[in-house]
Amino acid sequence: MKNALLLTCAVWLLCACGSKPASEIVTVKDFKELKSAIQQASPGTEIVMAEGIWKDAPIKFYGKGTADRPVTLRAETPGKVFVEGESFLHLGGEHLVVSGLYFRNGHTPSGSVFQYQISKDSIANHSRITNCVIDGFTQLNRWERDSWIAFYGKHNELDHCYIAGKSNDGATLMVYHKGNEHTNSYHKIYANYFGPRPRKGGPRAETIRFGGSETSMTPGRITVTNNYFEACNGEVEIISDKTRSNSFTNNIFYKCEGSLVMRHADYTTVDGNIFIGGDDSDFYGGIRVVNTGHWITNNYFYKIRGEEFRSPLAIMNGIPKSSLNRYKQVTDVVVAHNTWVDCKSPFQIGVGQNKASASVLPKSEIRSAPPIRTTIANNIIYNTQPDDSPVVNHDDMDGIKFKGNVIANGGESYAESEVLKSVDLDMKQVNEWLFVPTNQQEALSAVYAGYDFERIEQDLFGADRKDQNQVGAVVDLARAETFELDRSKYGPSWFTPNQKQGTPTVHNATAGNLSQVLAEAKDGDVVALSAAVYELAEPLKIDKELTLRAAGDSKPQIIYTGPAGTPAFELHPGGVVRLQDVAMSGQEGQLAFAPLAENMSSAYKLFVQNSEISGFDFVLKASKGSFADSITFTNTSIKDCKNGFVLAADEKGDYNAEMVTFEACAFENVSQNVVHFYRGGYDESTIGGFLTLRNNTFTRCGAKDASKVLIKTPGIINVHLLNNTFKNNPVELVALLWGAKNNLHQGNTVVSSGEIKVEEQRKLDLLY
Amino acid sequence: MKNALLLTCAVWLLCACGSKPASEIVTVKDFKELKSAIQQASPGTEIVMAEGIWKDAPIKFYGKGTADRPVTLRAETPGKVFVEGESFLHLGGEHLVVSGLYFRNGHTPSGSVFQYQISKDSIANHSRITNCVIDGFTQLNRWERDSWIAFYGKHNELDHCYIAGKSNDGATLMVYHKGNEHTNSYHKIYANYFGPRPRKGGPRAETIRFGGSETSMTPGRITVTNNYFEACNGEVEIISDKTRSNSFTNNIFYKCEGSLVMRHADYTTVDGNIFIGGDDSDFYGGIRVVNTGHWITNNYFYKIRGEEFRSPLAIMNGIPKSSLNRYKQVTDVVVAHNTWVDCKSPFQIGVGQNKASASVLPKSEIRSAPPIRTTIANNIIYNTQPDDSPVVNHDDMDGIKFKGNVIANGGESYAESEVLKSVDLDMKQVNEWLFVPTNQQEALSAVYAGYDFERIEQDLFGADRKDQNQVGAVVDLARAETFELDRSKYGPSWFTPNQKQGTPTVHNATAGNLSQVLAEAKDGDVVALSAAVYELAEPLKIDKELTLRAAGDSKPQIIYTGPAGTPAFELHPGGVVRLQDVAMSGQEGQLAFAPLAENMSSAYKLFVQNSEISGFDFVLKASKGSFADSITFTNTSIKDCKNGFVLAADEKGDYNAEMVTFEACAFENVSQNVVHFYRGGYDESTIGGFLTLRNNTFTRCGAKDASKVLIKTPGIINVHLLNNTFKNNPVELVALLWGAKNNLHQGNTVVSSGEIKVEEQRKLDLLY
Predict the structure, then answer these.
(1) Rounded-to-integer distance, Cα B732 and Cα B750, Å
(2) I want to staple B86 with a disulfide (CB 3.0 to 4.6 A). Which of A23, A246, B109, B558 is the partner?
(3) For residue A258, how many C-alpha atoms fall within 13 Å in the half-sphere facing its CB?
(4) Which of A438, A457, A437, A466 lies closest to A249 in space, CA to CA?
(5) Do A325 and B321 touch (CB under 8 A)?
(6) Nearest-CA distance from B404 to chain A in Å?
(7) How near does any CA of chain B get to the CA of A738, in Å?
(8) Choosing among A184, A214, A216, which should be mutated to test the B contact, i.e. which has the most B CBs within 10 A?
(9) Burial of A259 (0-12, 13-18, 19+ CB in 10 A)
(10) Would the CB atoms of B364 and A323 count as touching at under 8 Å?
(11) Is B22-488 in CATH node 2.160.20.10?
């Protein structure tokens, strides 16, 4: 009895010591009060920012808390404290917590929004930013570089934040590794919602990047776990790890046009991640592997259709004795117990092999070193429809040990049984994207026991493998069936990402009120035009998503009479215009469509269907720094214009549009630059833009083009000319295609229009 | 009382569980019995090899022991079991112990002597080789490559072994890192005696090497502690670490002509090592730093006089974005609390900077990236005589933070106080090489508190720094005074390295018995020759160290009459001849000195003083694979010979002699190849050979030399022509020197002998 009492006392004392002492709470209403409160804070202080809009607030939050008594900076009501204008939040010191702030309607003047360092002499450690939002806080110009979140120091955290809408240059989240103060950092990034990051065009648009090649020898020991990534489409790398010994576990990548890339990383743990793609894009990516010692286990891939660098699993070729910033050989990697469902050619071995380019690239750029000492084992490929080439060998697979992998290939058997054994699988569809083996079956029982495989203790959903191990990412159907993709578990509890309104409103507009109707329409609305003549004396401003279409069967006529050098449709950042069944004409000096001349902070989109365009100086002309995510013209005639589509305003690897498509259009008498889509310099890690010309006719075009080329695409990676008719165009070449870079032509009819020429290799200036 | 009894029982039980069960002991007498015993061994088995010589024993010791009950292979009596001939010992399995074996008089036919792997499928883990010797177990030819000790697997140990006398190609001890089975290995190498390894000439003669550049991204976590290295002179790297996260602590490097080098290593711990040099060589080295993250603390250096790559502290310049096998930039290194006593220019920053070679080397070879983010702090430089240049800046030191370093410079003050503060120090000489501050003094009290310096908890001798911290390697004189360099603590307890006999015996020889006297003389003996004529009809065999000198004041005359193509003195592996006050003549077709035509497994030395040599076809001609450690001719005339010294039998970076010196010699009428010392190919990490010509006269030499050059030294790194007289030599050039590579001339008189030409840069084929 006496002992029991003593024990109780001891437990009570223990609890008492562990509990937090009462805090001092300081509520601040303006920046001056905030500064003062920060200066006076001591361990345990809670600084409370009052509700409202804080404009132009460059917050330097320096403090020294303790593990038990941090210094806290929080919103009076989470989500009701808006930080806008030229603002940032930089931390310095120890044991700080920031919570509940909402950054929007602005941008940082300092290179970062959240930064775990005020200066080199004021680094933050053991500090946490939680429950915050940064939404659309992007620079005015796309080429201005920043990173919204910049990690320095050690043991810092970012959790339950929503981060979306960065469209300018620079990774969204950077972890810096320069100096012993910033390595072996054990940072944690968890339970965040990384919302849409639009296609940028060119490199430096990762959602997360760790370090750079110059610090690739430094360890991070950073954990990225349980985050949700949605439409992170900035570039080919969603995550670019350029340091060592980090882990990426239990994240969900939902329809992201990029990959998780071990760019300069070694000894990375990639476990239990889910990659969800779909039929709506060929660019959803998986995992790309470079370097040494990674363990890639328990990952699940659904409808990942990316190719080459964006393959579901891309094991790269390296450069022999690679320089620090290029491609080291893959060695000592393990890829085990993953599942690919309805992916396109999921195993891609030797990606990046470019021996054929030896004549145009220096030796130090030739990726001729295939992966070695690598094990790919106990994986499932499951296809509901047969895949002709589940494995693509780009060079030499002898350095890879394939063991215990199975394929159920939509009923067809696969020949290379040493790589993948053909089996029948009994799979249950648990939800839209999750297919799981009905428990324990013979076809999955031959588990290969590779070196150190004991460490793969659990499956994708945390089920113990010990007594029920089998091939693939999931061993326990019952447990898998309890899994739910609940977006509300990611990011701040108080925040729900913008959802499009249900049904768009349809507005009718007359010639007199068109501009006003557009200005008043809501994002996503439709403006119906009657079959009248709409004479416009100034540009229509498109700063949201709008559809302009004929109200009835006959085409409305838009006649643009504005000043020379101005466009009928002026596209603003984020503007989307869909033009349907409209006839539009202009005069000398005018443009049909154009982005703003500057401050095009984010991309625009342009869709034109069943329309007629004539009489303009330019149909579309890009400005420097502008970027079109998509330009699609369908079943439209383009006639009697001086220039067609000029997307050639940028240099050095940047380019002005990602997806450019013309289908069933009729080009007639466009004097020059029918299409001029340009990208300067060579950076093989970027894989755009895309130009598709299908079923179009080109007649009497290009007469005044000095280049004597009709379709000009220098430096563009993907150009497809399919089933077009080129007739009586006074040029020497229809196009000069770059064979090695997915430029191709098929089924075209060329009459009195020169020829289509393919140059297999092309010599360009390297960008790095 | 009851409680006390219970406690006693518990302790007794604990001990009982920890003690080893009785072992099965199997004594074996021949190789067949040994094989059989190995096959039948089980946990706890002790296989005992009977005393005697085991010839041609390729031992594959496979077994599976446990931590408590290893499988043991041991000598019946330690040191009385000799393994000879074509033999090796390879281990495979778990928990093996080998003890007491003595490998001598032979070589391995397999690439290694001790190997912790039998095959790729039979790797050893948790296995130990202890208390063994490998002495002179070197290949017959110098160019045949092996490594005596080859580590594979994990958690293996080598301790209390004596390893010496390797003269062939290949690191003495290698740790292999190819594959996850062999990385993160936690091997331990401790309490060993690494005895003399002679100068090899060229690379691949390290005493210890970890991995290679191709596995430089892999961690080792290997400990090299408390070993003794003596005269490990194989090449410029005593230890070449090419992997990550290893530690070198408390080792003693005694008169080793090389350095501890972080060649491709990152995050190395170098703590508490002692480097003892002396006045007798300019090649004793210290620590050379490449790459990232090393902590170099508590080390002590005495009379380390090496330069450039062998500097006491060499912080290298890197190559920007270096390829994997070249030189990465130094970053994030800490050099703190070390002491340099009477060293020459101890701080060398930017070693290897070679911007001036940009015209002859590819860009990818130019070391133009200076060290960055590096701290050099709290170090002592103590000189009893002033050093003009304690710090040598080869490029740019801005990336280095110098803090708290002091210098006591033999009474002179040093100007650059930001790098080194001039102080007076009160130092006590504890022994021949150890100088320690008499305790706590003002000049050492300003300790800089760098980032994470708390981890430097102790000093060189294990004294706690907490309450008595000060600048330098030693904080506690009393504790330092208890330190004793006791060689018997290293290597096997039963073994003492060969000691030279005290006084050499002097033998008298007549013309009739000279060969026989030489054969019977002991290593180190002296043979006195009377002033007679010694006519020799066959070569004198030199396979040990012998001095031949005049017995009195008059020179004995050696007349060689042996067959054409044979030498008067035939140098065997390890042979050393000292010739003093002798006249020697030969005839056409004969050589004065030559090594064996093949199987020159180790180096020879040749010293000639006050002698006369005439009438030979060659004075000295090297054979392929032969190597002279030293060739020194002093005050000797060389006359009427067809060829002089031809050291030009090897290719690809190997060369035939290290130190070649002529002082006060008279060369007259030597028709060609007066000196031809050659090294082909360029490998900048090797820094030999050395040719010194001082105060000699050359008259009427080189008449028949097709090259029209008198002194030919292509590819030789160090050539010094000082105060010689060249007169009436019918050549175009006295010498063509390589300015950038320590080739220089001064004070020479050149009359009718062409000129001395210096070419600053030279273009050579790279060897890597």
Answers:
(1) 12
(2) B109
(3) 32
(4) A457
(5) yes
(6) 19
(7) 30
(8) A214
(9) buried
(10) yes
(11) yes
What does the DSSP 8-state code read for residue A704?
A: T
Q: Taking CB atoms and an 8 Å limit, are B180 and A266 in contact across chains?
A: no
- Say which residues have a Cβ less than 8 Å from residue B317's Cβ, sequence separation at least 6: B327, B329, B330, B350, B351, B352, B353, B354, B367, B368, B369, B370, B371, B394, B395
Residues of chain B with pLDDT under 50: 1-19
Domains of chain B, residue spans: 22-488
- Number of inter-chain CB pairs under 8 A, A vs B: 73
Q: Which residues of A touch B (CB under 8 A)?
A: 178-181, 183, 213-215, 217-219, 244, 266-267, 291-293, 321-325, 328-329, 331-332, 334, 364, 373, 451-452
Q: Are strands A690-694 and A709-712 parallel, antiparallel or unpaired?
A: unpaired
Residue A168: is its pLDDT beyond 90?
yes
- Put simply, the answer to whether B328 touches A323 (Cβ < 8 Å) is no
Rounded to 5 degrees, what are φ and ψ at A55? Answer: -100, 140
pLDDT of A11: 39
Confidence of residue A3 (pLDDT cuts 50, 70, 90): very low
Contact B266 A217 (CB under 8 A): yes
Closest CB to B332 among A180, A244, A293 = A180
Tell me, what's the ipTM? 0.89
Contacts of A185 in chain B (CB under 8 A): none
pLDDT at A287: 98
Q: Do B324 and A322 touch (CB under 8 A)?
A: yes
- Which stretches does DSSP call E strand in A413-502? 421-422, 427-429, 435-437
Element containing residue B526 per DSSP (H, E)? strand B526-529
What 3-state DSSP class applies to A710? strand
Which among A323, A335, A364 is the top mutation candidate for probing chain B, defined by the most B β-carbons within 10 Å of its own β-carbon?
Answer: A323
* A414, A420 Cβ separation under 8 angstroms: yes
What's the rounded Cα separation, in Å, for the pair A714 and B707? 56
List chain A residues with CB under 8 Å of B324: 321-323, 328
Do B213 and A321 count as a contact with CB atoms less than 8 A apart? yes
| Contacts of residue A299, Cβ cutoff 8 Å, sequence gap at least 6 | A270, A271, A272, A273, A274, A275, A287, A338, A339, A460, A473
What length is written for chain A?
Answer: 768
Q: How far apart are CA A479 and CA B126, in angstroms?
A: 39
Contact: B292, A218; criterion CB under 8 Å: yes
For residue B654, what pLDDT is reported? 80
Q: Which residues contact B289 (CB under 8 A, 6 or more apart)?
A: B262, B296, B313, B314, B315, B316, B330, B333, B335, B371
**Residue A321 to residue B321, Cβ atoms within 8 A:** no
Instruction: Tell me if B85 sits within 8 A of B109, measured CB to CB.
Output: no
Q: What is the DSSP letter of B323?
A: B
Q: Which residue has the tokens 């004065």?
A: B592
B293–A217: do the CB atoms touch at under 8 Å?
yes
The whole-number pLDDT of residue B511 equals 81
pLDDT range class, residue A684, cuts 50, 70, 90: low
Residues in chain A closer than 8 A to B331 (CB atoms):
215
Q: Does residue B337 contact residue B298 with C-beta atoms inside 8 Å?
A: yes
| Nearest to A65, CA basis, from A110, A127, A21, A3 | A127
- CA distance linking residue B131 with residue B77, whole number of Å: 11
Instruction: Give the closest of A178, A213, A332 to B180, CB-based.
Output: A332
- Give percent above pLDDT 70 in chain A: 95
- Classify burial at B634, counting beta carbons within 10 Å of its beta carbon; exposed 0-12, middle 13-18, buried 19 or more: middle
Continuous segment of H or E residues that includes residue B711: strand B709-712
Cα A248 to chain centroid distance, Å, stands at: 17
Residue A451 Cα, gap to closest chain B Cα (Å) = 7
